[in-house]
């Protein structure tokens, strides 16, 4: 699948300018992903998927992002849902006391992904951002199931996904934050609000929710798991985008090299040095993402693993923004024209540090940790 991602990247790159210009969802890229079996990347082989681990996901995401960061970012949301579901092994489920019906629902969702369905994430809200403990969307018991009501924002792939992971708080006990997998259709209304600086093709629109779902839609089958999962296994919430933004950074270096060579600017020492520094910075960020991913596969949730996860997100976000800015400067004003790859990559790369955990939040987490505090609880505001 890594080879297939490398094969698809130039196809994505060829379509990226038009999708960015129109702020249009990359429908053809997603058809390619579906045909290539990518929706089953994180699904265990016993359920029909490729059974990839986090390291393999990170490599695939990096390659896809070299083609189109927006496509890779939306795919990341699906990989996060399916990766987190696959991470609930039968042993873990038993330790957590998850009911058998929840495991059957997990398997059904994963099988459908392997068969070509894909999932979006509707967590963020206007005002609350991605802080799970502050969400205004609520759920309550309704017959044998739940009624979920609220409004989400920045939902990448809104209007195109087959189902949405929706985070909500219990209306009677707001300390309980739960996640539901809700099929597209009645009760979910997309409001096309995404007209942004960068990652324009992600269709990260608002999603209004007033829907009743059966009990099996509650992920894990037990209420109140969302905050614990975010703290214990932060890799999908914090670091899965990291590989995407390192891929965007590498695409910026590649685009700058092409531009500089075609214009005969390579003899200028200042231009060469910018490319040299950028190359080294991207390689370093990629190594850190790789190390975090390796540790996630080997010892998920361990304190040292989580440190690398937060480091990876911080370095990927800042490296992408700095490298893309420097490559634009190396290439010159002609690369600032609309439609030039560097103009788009500069804007796409800008989003990396803003995605949760933002670079500032990552730096604070790492700083609190380095100073001997508890980085999950000692911040000035709730992390989640
Ligand atoms: C391209 C793109 C795609 C996205 N796709 C999705 C998606 O599919 N699904 C989804 O749910 N969301 C998605 N998001 C939304 C992303 O999760 C939001 O950026 C997030 O919810 C934060 O919202 P916010 O930036 O408006 O506000 P905030 O998180 O409130 O951030 C505002 C400022 O406050 C600071 N801050 C926030 N928390 C803390 C803290 N604990 N301590 C100190 N400082 C803090 C931040 O660093 C920042 O400077 C996407 C975002 C982007 C850019």
From TrEMBL:
<dbReference type="Pfam" id="PF08028">
    <property type="entry name" value="Acyl-CoA_dh_2"/>
</dbReference>
<dbReference type="Pfam" id="PF02770">
    <property type="entry name" value="Acyl-CoA_dh_M"/>
</dbReference>
<keyword id="KW-0288">FMN</keyword>
<dbReference type="InterPro" id="IPR013786">
    <property type="entry name" value="AcylCoA_DH/ox_N"/>
</dbReference>
<dbReference type="GO" id="GO:0006552">
    <property type="term" value="P:L-leucine catabolic process"/>
</dbReference>
<comment type="pathway">
    <text>Sulfur metabolism; dibenzothiophene degradation.</text>
</comment>
<comment type="similarity">
    <text>Belongs to the DszC flavin monooxygenase family.</text>
</comment>
<dbReference type="GO" id="GO:0050660">
    <property type="term" value="F:flavin adenine dinucleotide binding"/>
</dbReference>
<dbReference type="InterPro" id="IPR006091">
    <property type="entry name" value="Acyl-CoA_Oxase/DH_mid-dom"/>
</dbReference>
<dbReference type="Pfam" id="PF02771">
    <property type="entry name" value="Acyl-CoA_dh_N"/>
</dbReference>
<dbReference type="GO" id="GO:0005737">
    <property type="term" value="C:cytoplasm"/>
</dbReference>
<dbReference type="GO" id="GO:0008470">
    <property type="term" value="F:3-methylbutanoyl-CoA dehydrogenase activity"/>
</dbReference>
<feature type="domain" description="Acyl-CoA dehydrogenase/oxidase N-terminal">
    <location>
        <begin position="3"/>
        <end position="83"/>
    </location>
</feature>
<keyword id="KW-0547">Nucleotide-binding</keyword>
<keyword id="KW-0503">Monooxygenase</keyword>
<protein>
    <recommendedName>
        <fullName>Dibenzothiophene monooxygenase</fullName>
        <ecNumber>1.14.14.21</ecNumber>
    </recommendedName>
</protein>
<feature type="domain" description="Acyl-CoA dehydrogenase C-terminal">
    <location>
        <begin position="241"/>
        <end position="352"/>
    </location>
</feature>
<keyword id="KW-0560">Oxidoreductase</keyword>
<feature type="domain" description="Acyl-CoA oxidase/dehydrogenase middle">
    <location>
        <begin position="120"/>
        <end position="210"/>
    </location>
</feature>
<dbReference type="InterPro" id="IPR013107">
    <property type="entry name" value="Acyl-CoA_DH_C"/>
</dbReference>
<dbReference type="GO" id="GO:0004497">
    <property type="term" value="F:monooxygenase activity"/>
</dbReference>
<dbReference type="InterPro" id="IPR046373">
    <property type="entry name" value="Acyl-CoA_Oxase/DH_mid-dom_sf"/>
</dbReference>
<keyword id="KW-0285">Flavoprotein</keyword>
<dbReference type="InterPro" id="IPR037069">
    <property type="entry name" value="AcylCoA_DH/ox_N_sf"/>
</dbReference>
<dbReference type="InterPro" id="IPR009100">
    <property type="entry name" value="AcylCoA_DH/oxidase_NM_dom_sf"/>
</dbReference>
<dbReference type="InterPro" id="IPR036250">
    <property type="entry name" value="AcylCo_DH-like_C"/>
</dbReference>
């Amino acid at each position: 699948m890594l080879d297939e991602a490398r094969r698809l990247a130039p196809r994505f790159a060829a379509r990226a300018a038009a999708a960015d210009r129109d702020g249009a969802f990359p429908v053809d890229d997603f058809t390619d992903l579906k045909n290539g079996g990518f929706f089953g990347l994180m699904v265990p082989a016993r359920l029909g998927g490729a059974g990839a681990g986090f390291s393999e996901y990170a490599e695939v995401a990096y390659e896809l992002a070299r083609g189109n960061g927006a496509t890779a970012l939306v795919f990341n949301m699906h990989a996060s849902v399916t990766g987190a579901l696959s991470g609930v092994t039968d042993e873990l489920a038993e330790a957590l006391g998850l009911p058998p019906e929840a495991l059957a629902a997990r398997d059904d969702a994963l099988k459908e992904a392997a068969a070509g369905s894909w999932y979006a994430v509707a967590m963020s809200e206007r005002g609350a951002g991605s802080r799970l403990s502050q969400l205004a969307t609520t759920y309550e018991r309704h017959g044998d199931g739940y009624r979920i009501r609220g409004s989400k924002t920045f939902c990448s792939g809104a209007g195109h996904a087959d189902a949405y992971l929706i985070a909500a708080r219990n209306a009677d006990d707001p300390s309980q934050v739960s996640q539901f997998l809700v099929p597209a259709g009645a009760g979910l209304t997309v409001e096309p609000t995404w007209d942004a600086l960068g990652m324009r093709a992600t269709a990260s629109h608002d999603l209004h929710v007033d829907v009743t779902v059966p009990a099996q839609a509650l992920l894990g089958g037990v209420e109140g798991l969302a905050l614990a999962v975010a703290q214990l296994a932060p890799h999908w919430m914090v670091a899965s985008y990291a590989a995407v933004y390192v891929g965007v950074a590498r695409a910026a270096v590649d685009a700058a090299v092409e531009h500089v060579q075609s214009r005969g600017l390579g003899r200028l020492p200042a231009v060469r040095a910018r490319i040299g520094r950028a190359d080294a910075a991207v390689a370093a960020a990629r190594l850190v993402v790789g190390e975090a991913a390796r540790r996630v596969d080997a010892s998920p949730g361990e304190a040292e693993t989580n440190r690398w996860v937060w480091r990876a997100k911080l370095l990927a976000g800042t490296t992408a923004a700095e490298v893309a800015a420097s490559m634009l400067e190396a290439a010159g004003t002609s690369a600032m024209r609309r439609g030039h790859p560097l103009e788009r990559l500069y804007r796409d790369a800008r989003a990396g540090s803003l995605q949760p955990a933002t670079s500032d939040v990552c730096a604070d987490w790492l700083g609190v940790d380095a100073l001997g505090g508890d980085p999950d609880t000692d911040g000035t505001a709730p992390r989640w």
